[in-house]
Write a structure and sequence with these properties.
By secondary structure, the chain is of the alpha+beta class. The chain contains 3 helices and 2 strands; from the N terminus they run H-E-E-H-H. The chain has one domain. Strands 1-2 form a two-stranded antiparallel sheet.
Length: 61
């Protein structure tokens, strides 16, 4: 994956819930998500790519 080859930082997204501490998730940037989808499509071709990924590449760029 691209995240292994490049040093890409993740953002922390915090949820305010009923617990005192809340909950947080690490999320990837939009650039990282799109680059990984494109890399997968170029490496494996359309036969093994998910159609959802192809749709997101076409309509979110």
């Amino acid at each position: 994956m691209i995240s292994i080859r490049k040093q890409i930082e993740q953002e922390e997204y915090c949820f305010d819930i009923a617990y005192d501490e809340g909950a947080s998730l690490l999320i990837n940037s939009n650039e990282q998500m799109l680059s990984e989808k494109l890399w997968s499509l170029l490496k494996f071709g359309t036969f093994s790519a998910r159609f959802k990924d192809i749709y997101e590449l076409c309509f979110t760029v």
